[in-house]
Amino acid sequence: MKQPSWASLLRRHAALLQRAAKPVRERRQPPAGAGSWLMGVVMAPAGPRRYWLFRPAGVRFGERLPLMVMLHGCHQDAKSFADSTRMNSVAARERFLVLYPEQPRLSNAQGCWNWFDTQSGRAFGEAAWIMQAIEQVCVLYAADRERVAVAGLSAGASMAALLATRYPQRFKALAMHSGVPPGAASSPASAVGAMQGRRVPKAVVEPAVAWPPLMVIHGDADGVVSARNAGAAAQMWSDAAGAREGEPQAQVRGKRYPMQVTHFKRSRRVVATLVQVGRLGHAWSGGAARQRFSDANGPDASRMVWRFAARQFSAPPAR
Q: CA 47 → CA 52, 125, 133, distances in Å?
């Protein structure tokens, strides 16, 4: 039997090293989008916390751009969430900043935001440092404080909802994708039941400061977070504002999954929009192909979220 030559062995070794180095190179490459991918740090009581910011190309001196805050889900980080949602490409085209706070693994081994841990106060501590990051971006990169929206997936959606209800005056719009409404859990033990849709949020009275309008997107085939949470979130916003539920409207865009859209209105003002996507699992709808927690066959959630936020930025103040 002929033994492989040294040259052949070296070529195989080089190929193995190249394949091993590929994930490292991919992690270092910035997400797609014509602009800058910038890292920042804020000091929280528990230690330094990192965030990433996408700034579109050609920002002029003195120009103040809207800010979209994007909160990743479990087993994700800032870059993987940016890659899967492709929100940076939308931001480059529409000209807005995108902030990606990043949950350190020391705070949660799976990279989840601890949205459920209100009993211990951990959830509120995480919300506070995210607000620090938002303020820092407003100061350093001239983000427009009057045009800030927050969105998230799964645990990130639940944390986004916590932010919007805890600091309602700071946000013009909230988008929850496959998340749990605030108040459904208060500890790690109760979080599982909330994710399964077995815990209903506490009834709310009309808040002193109106919550920002909500868009909630959820797949009806989600096996991780029950789709019942989507309806509960929309109903929660509707009850808090004294709104009424409209007739569901079926929509299909090309070959993408069908969706059913329901608006909850108070007079002519949309308080909440519920988007139920058929056949979608626990994944960002219309996200990049071959990315974890992303389904390219769904309607484009990133475009829907931006259009929803942009409408709130230009809407007159709620009365």
A: 17, 11, 14
Joined together, the tokens standing for residue 58 give: 């050609």
The domain ranges of the chain are 30-314
d(CA 79, CA 272): 29
Cβ contacts of 205 within 8 Å, gap of 6 or more: 240
Domain 30-314 has CATH 3.40.630.30: no
Residue 97 near residue 55 (C-beta atoms within 8 A) = yes
pTM (two decimals): 0.91
Beta bridge partners of 264: 245, 272
Rg, Å, the chain Cα set: 21
* Series of mean pLDDT values for 10-residue runs along the chain (319 residues): 60 60 56 94 95 96 96 98 98 98 97 97 97 98 97 98 98 98 94 92 78 98 98 96 97 96 96 98 98 98 98 85
